[in-house]
Amino acid sequence: MITFGPVQSRRLGKSLGINNVPPPKTCSYSCIYCQVGLTRHMTTRRREMYPPETILEETGKRLRLLDRADYPDYLTFVADGEPTLDKRLGESIRLLKGFEIPVAVITNGTLLGDPEVAEALSEADWVSLKADTADNETWKKINRPCKTLELEDMHASYKRFAEMFEGILVTETMLVSGVNDATDTIKETADFISTLDPLVSYISVPVRPPAVQSAVMPERSDIESARDIFLKVLPNVVLLDKFEGAETGYTGDAVQDITAMCAVHPMREDTMARLLGKDNAGEDTVDRLLREGKIKKTCYRSHTFYLKK
Ligand code: SF4
Q1: 25, 29, 33, 172: which to mutate for ligand 1, most atoms within 8 A of CB?
Q2: What is the pLDDT of residues 175-195, one digit of tens each?
């Protein structure tokens, strides 16, 4: 399933998700906090994935099925892996712009050194670059990059992109307790981000089940102290440390809605209940998907989450 939602996003309002990376999960990182599990195919090699015409058709279909109230504020590339590994991402973005809805891409930024990737991303209206740390050892611990990647080169490519990009550039830093939340590490991260001059620097924490169980959120006082350190060098810092809310778009097909969303976005029990209600479906739909092994259930921070199996 290529499209899902729209889901409520604190960064983008109503965001219709576009998952342009077919399974298995393919990424140049295997972040310890990843909410879609361990990376099954680690690579930095770009290849053709879904044809842009298929992405356009699927997006159009979903838009036509939505209630006016659910119409998205953004079409967002947020994949089961890294969206820039799709060699034809730029073409897809160009086609989607025909809907006259702004296009966003959430990327780990690892491939920005490739001029074709920078060019593809420059077609988007809003780009979020991952910036968890500027320290090499910490980077290896938290993002677990492909061996061919070098942090210094990658950060140099971030700076080049930030200078040429005409859309909205934001950064996202995921804080993990005991990994990248030490004061010196945070200072270094904030100093690096300040060289990019992003519109907003988001700080997030693992609010959904992480790939590695030990990747948990820092204490509240540490999260607040990280925000204060960021604020010393960055004008706009926003903490994303709360649940976005259970509201989500629906198409009337509960099975499709659930499987598409679970592929990239673990669903909390209240979101599931709300979606089932909108799709006029019952708990038996979830039970069937669990029995068929299409989704699984897990408990995290006192909540039940449903995610792809
Ligand atoms: S969080 Fe993003 S960059 Fe990290 S492993 Fe998951 S999909 Fe890849």
Answers
A1: 29
A2: 999 999 999 999 999 999 999
Q: What is the CATH number of the domain that holds 25?
A: 3.20.20.70
Phi-psi region of 61 (alpha: psi -120 to 50; beta: other; left: phi over 0): alpha
Residue 256 lies in a domain: no
CA of 308 to the centre of ligand 1 (A): 15
C-alpha of residue 216 to centroid of ligand 1, in Å: 16
**pLDDT tens for residues 121-165?**
999 999 999 999 999 999 999 999 999 999 999 999 999 999 999
What distance in Å separates the CA atoms of residue 143 and residue 118, rounded to the nearest whole number?
A: 21
Q: Is residue 216 part of a domain?
A: yes
Taking the CA of residue 279 as centre, how many other CA atoms within 13 Å lie in the half-sphere pointing to its CB? 26
Domain count, the chain: 1
- Cα of 213 from ligand 1 centre, angstroms: 15
Q: Quick check: is 297 in a domain? A: no
State percent of the chain over pLDDT 70: 100
Is the peptide bond between 51 and the residue preceding it cis, with omega within 30 degrees of 0?
no
Which structural domain range is residue 145 located in? 3-244
Q: Which residues contact 25 (CB under 8 A, 6 or more apart)?
A: 36, 37, 38, 39, 40, 41, 80, 81
What is the number of the ligand 1 atom nearest to the C-alpha of 143? Answer: 4
Write out pLDDT tens, residues 44-74.
999 999 999 999 999 999 999 888 888 999 9
